[in-house]
Every structure is written in structure tokens, then in C-alpha cells.
């Protein structure tokens, strides 16, 4: 019996008519057929634009601000960030209770968001004829990249890493637009999902040369190279990972120390390869991605008490702060909230993310050249090229006000550890931590802090840090735990007998 899949696209008309924003200058269409939608470059472009906005902005609740809700969940499931006790947003993801429970709305949201985005891409791929010329070809290439991006995320969220067991069943693969009569698919093996990811990315690689985007939210050839680097890194195909990472970051210089202090909130940053610009009305205000992770006060009240915008739910762990060299420009962005009456009192604040005051219209980062540099450095180190890896790593260190490392001072394993530590420091808050925990088959080390500070009243007070150091069943955090994997939602299990 055929059943309706929960993520089936309600209709292209709905997609077009529900996404309106002057920033992207789209022209919503109503009451048009599928054939008409895909009859022109402008229409297909509008579909893709709306699809990207859906993935980044669609929300079922204030604590699910689109794809960034998944990024934030990844961060609090590690050790370098924690959710403030009792604060709205990610307080249940931090102790591995949500989305581990397959009955929660968050569990359903994560699955539905990404599979709906896949269906959007499938519609463009199925209905766009590249024979129409370069513009059609470029739009189809972007759809392949978007589909691959979603499947690459899903296969790393719903199953253990490729190297652990490539035959383990992961997630269903759909390559055609869904309808009420679509036959629900079984879960494909990890290696089958990766084969599709690589096929899509190489197809995008073929289609996208010559594409010149006007907005950085569109996946271009550099984005495709970066996604290939991520995929090959997880598959431990080190040479391919290094090669594609180097190609991805070409023409995207590492930001300077000064630029690092300006806040991660604008796609004009020279090292952002891929990012999503948005205006205030698009980013869900105080419950946006940046408002959850931003800890910078934007004003003070009449008594001089710091005032924050948004929920400010996710904090850096004090032990994470200790990882930074005093000379590191990133270390200068940490301080402790010392006013007893302010909302973040006794927490470390980290001014990495700042939500573009006064309008709070910060942009979402999706790929940076620093990430690609670290993929290249790690891959070279694992290929036994210690000198080459050190040279690459020093490119980043010099832009963070750090001295160069010497290859002679490191063994291969020591250098790999140094690079992995640099990934934690550089990419904090951007959604990579859970992926690395699963890829490396490690466990977070969560330790309560004993650090203290003197508050504005001259009283010595304990700094706040990790408050949940075990799994929900009381066991110690361990590698390859079921608690790291997202569950298939109960609704989907009930509607798809082939799972």
C-alpha cells in the first residue's frame, strides 16, 4: 500500500507564494502549473531562491529557526558549549534528551525540514532542461549541490560514520519529486547514500563552471568543492579531501585578526564561501540563530546593567576558553559577565557572533575558507606530509596573531591532534562539533569548572559551566553512543512501512 510521506512537497505554487522578500527580488507566482513554473529561467531561479530560504528560515517554533537549529544542537551535544540551565531553546538537546526522543516536535522538524528541501531540489532537477543553455544548466547544478548538501548532513546525523560501518543502514534516498502516490523507500546503507552524494556533487561540478552568483546564498563551484572536501574527509579519502579543500578556498582569503573581532554576521566577510543574508524580519528576531548563540550586550539600562538581545541560550564552556593562547585574537573575545543583576551573570561571554546592531539582521555562515584550510591541513598530516600540513596550518595561525609552528617539533599524531584542536577553536558555534565527534569516534569530555571570579560587588563567585556530564541513563559519555544519533520521527515510522 502506498502512503503519503510526511515531507512531500505540498506544491510548487505554495513554495513560490509563501516566500516573499524584497531583499531577493523574487516575484511570487500563484495558480500556475508545474510546466509553467519551470518554463523560464526567472521562474526556476525563484523556485531555487525560495527553496534556500525555506531551508534556512522555515520554523515550526521559536526554538527551531531553520537549519541553524541543527547547527546549535550539534554544538551543545559536544563539550565546548553548554545550554544555560532553565533557559529556553536547547536545554533538552544539551543533555541528549532531545532530539534523541523520536516523539518530539524537534525530532520531526529536523527530518521534515531536510527532506522537504531535498524534494524542492528534486523538482528543479526533474523539471529543468540543461539543453536550454548555461543559465538552465547553472540552476540545475545548484539543485544538485543543494540535494547533496542535505544528504551529506542526513547521513552524518542518522548513522555512525562511514569508516565505522559503511554497510549500516542510514536514511532513505529519494531522487524524484514526491507525490501522494510515491512509494516510501527503505533506509539506504551509508555507502549508498555517500555514493549518491558524490554523484550529485560531481554532476554539480560539471554543470556550475562559469556560474557567477550575485548573492552568496547560492551554491557555486567553490561551494561544491567545499562539500566534496567534507564528504571525502569523512570517508578518509585524504588526497581528494586535501585537493578539493584547496580548490574551495581559492580566492577566499583567511580573515584578518581585526575582521575576526567584528562579529560573524555578514556574508561580505572575505572568507565566507557560502552564507545566507537576511533582514530582520527573516531571522525570527530574538529566537534566531545568532540570538541564541550571541552573548554580546547591545545596550545597558539606566543603572548601567548590560542588556542582551534574544535568548542567549548557548554559552562557551570555561575549559574551552582555557584552550586559547593569551596572544590569540580569539581569546580577547571572551570575558565574564560580572554584574549580579545581568542575565548572563557568572557566565563567560564570547563575542564571536554579533547580530548586526541595531536591526539584528545578522547573516548565517554556511562555509568558510578556514574550515577548508583545516580539512586540507588534517588531510596532509594523515598523508604523512607533516611539513606541508604545518605550512597550511600556519596560514591560519598567522591571522589569529599566533606564532608559526615548526614541523620539527611535531610527530604526525601530535600534529593531527593540534589540527583537531584548532577545528574546535576556530569553528565553534558553526555546527561542526557533533560531526567531528562521530567522524573521529570520540566522546566529549565534559568537566565541571572550579574557576572563580570577583564580581562587581567585590565578592568571589564561581563561574558557571558544564552541569550535565553523563547520558540520560546515567552512563559516562562514550564513543559511538546511540545518544549522538538523531532518531527517525515516530510519524515517519508509522507512515513508512519500508523503514
* CA gyration radius, whole angstroms: 22 Å
Helix content: 25-40%
Judged by helices, strands and strand pairing, the structural class is: mainly alpha
Mean pLDDT metric: 92
| Residue fraction in strands | 5-15%
Question: How many strands?
Answer: 10
The sequence of SSEs as H and E is HHHHEHHHHHHEHEEEHEEEHHHHEEH
Low-confidence stretches: 1-15, 17-32
Molecular shape: globular
Most strands sheet: 2 strands, antiparallel
- Tell me the span between the first and last alpha carbons: 14 Å
**Strands ordered across the widest β-sheet:** 1-5
Number of helices: 17
Protein model, in words:
The chain has 499 residues and is mostly helical. It has a domain of 94 residues. The chain is 39% helix and 6% strand. A two-stranded antiparallel ribbon has the order 1-5. Strand 9 and strand 10 form a beta hairpin. Helix 13 runs antiparallel to helix 14.
Task: Give the helices and strands, then pairings.
Elements: H1 12-18, H2 34-37, H3 41-57, H4 68-76, E1 81-83, H5 105-127, H6 134-157, H7 190-207, H8 221-234, H9 238-248, H10 257-260, E2 272-276, H11 289-293, E3 299-300, E4 306-307, E5 314-316, H12 318-321, E6 334-336, E7 348-350, E8 364-368, H13 369-382, H14 386-398, H15 412-426, H16 433-440, E9 452-454, E10 460-462, H17 490-495
Antiparallel strand pairs: 1-5, 2-8, 3-4, 6-7, 9-10
Helix pairs in contact: 1-3, 3-5, 3-6, 5-6, 6-7, 6-8, 7-8, 8-9, 8-13, 9-13, 13-14, 13-15
Characteristic terms for this protein:
mainly alpha; about 500 residues; 17 helices; two-stranded antiparallel sheet; two-stranded antiparallel ribbon; about 5% strand
Amino acid at each position: 500500500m502506498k502512503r503519503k510521506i510526511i515531507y512531500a512537497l505540498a506544491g510548487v505554487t505554495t513554495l513560490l507564494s509563501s516566500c516573499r522578500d524584497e531583499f531577493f527580488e523574487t516575484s511570487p507566482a500563484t495558480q500556475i502549473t508545474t510546466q509553467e513554473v519551470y518554463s523560464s529561467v526567472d521562474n526556476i531561479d525563484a523556485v531555487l531562491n525560495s527553496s534556500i530560504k525555506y531551508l534556512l528560515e522555515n520554523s515550526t517554533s521559536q526554538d527551531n529557526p531553520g537549519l541553524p537549529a541543527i547547527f546549535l544542537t550539534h554544538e551543545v551535544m559536544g563539550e565546548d558549549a553548554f545550554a544555560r540551565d532553565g533557559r529556553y531553546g536547547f536545554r533538552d538537546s544539551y543533555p541528549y534528551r532531545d532530539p534523541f526522543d523520536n516523539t518530539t516536535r524537534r525530532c520531526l522538524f529536523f527530518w521534515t525540514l531536510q527532506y522537504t528541501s531535498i524534494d524542492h531540489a528534486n523538482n528543479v532537477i526533474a523539471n529543468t532542461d540543461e539543453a536550454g543553455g548555461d543559465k538552465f544548466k547553472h540552476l540545475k547544478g545548484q539543485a544538485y549541490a543543494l540535494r547533496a548538501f542535505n544528504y551529506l548532513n542526513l547521513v552524518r546525523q542518522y548513522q555512525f560514520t562511514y569508516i565505522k560501518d559503511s554497510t549500516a543502514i542510514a536514511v532513505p534516498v529519494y531522487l524524484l519529486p514526491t507525490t501522494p502516490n510515491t512509494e516510501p523507500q527503505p533506509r539506504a546503507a551509508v555507502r549508498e547514500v555517500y555514493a549518491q552524494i558524490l554523484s550529485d556533487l560531481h554532476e554539480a561540478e560539471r554543470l556550475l563552471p562559469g556560474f557567477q552568483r550575485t548573492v552568496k546564498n547560492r551554491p557555486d563551484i567553490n561551494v561544491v568543492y567545499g562539500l566534496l572536501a567534507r564528504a571525502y574527509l569523512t570517508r578518509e579519502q585524504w588526497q581528494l579531501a586535501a585537493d578539493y579543500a584547496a580548490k574551495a578556498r581559492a580566492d577566499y582569503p583567511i580573515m584578518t585578526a581585526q575582521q575576526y573581532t567584528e562579529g560573524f554576521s555578514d556574508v561580505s566577510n572575505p572568507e565566507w564561501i557560502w552564507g545566507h543574508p537576511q533582514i530582520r524580519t527573516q531571522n525570527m528576531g530574538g529566537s534566531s540563530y545568532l540570538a541564541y548563540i550571541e552573548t554580546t550586550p547591545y545596550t545597558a539600562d539606566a543603572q548601567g546593567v548590560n542588556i542582551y538581545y534574544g535568548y542567549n541560550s548557548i554559552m562557551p564552556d570555561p575549559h574551552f576558553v582555557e584552550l586559547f593562547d593569551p596572544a590569540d585574537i580569539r581569546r580577547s573575545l571572551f570575558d565574564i559577565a560580572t554584574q549580579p543583576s545581568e542575565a548572563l551573570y557568572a557566565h563567560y561571554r564570547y563575542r564571536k557572533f554579533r547580530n548586526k546592531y541595531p536591526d539584528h539582521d545578522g547573516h548565517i555562515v554556511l562555509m568558510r575558507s578556514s574550515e577548508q584550510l583545516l580539512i586540507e591541513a588534517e588531510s596532509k598530516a594523515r598523508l604523512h606530509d607533516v611539513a606541508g600540513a604545518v605550512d597550511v596550518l600556519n596560514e591560519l595561525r598567522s591571522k589569529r596573531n599566533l606564532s608559526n609552528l615548526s614541523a620539527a617539533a611535531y610527530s604526525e599524531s601530535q600534529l593531527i591532534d593540534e589540527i583537531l584542536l584548532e577545528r574546535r577553536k576556530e569553528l565553534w558555534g558553526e555546527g561542526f562539533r557533533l560531526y567531528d565527534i562521530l567522524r573521529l569516534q570520540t566522546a566529549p569530555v565534559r568537566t565541571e569548572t572550579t574557576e572563580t571570579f570577583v564580581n562587581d560587588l567585590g565578592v568571589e563567585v564561581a563561574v558557571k559551566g558544564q552541569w550535565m556530564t553523563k547520558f540520560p541513563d546515567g552512563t559516562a559519555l562514550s564513543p559511538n553512543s546511540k545518544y549522538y544519533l538523531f532518531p527517525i520521527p515516530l510519524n515517519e515510522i508509522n507512515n513508512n512501512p519500508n523503514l
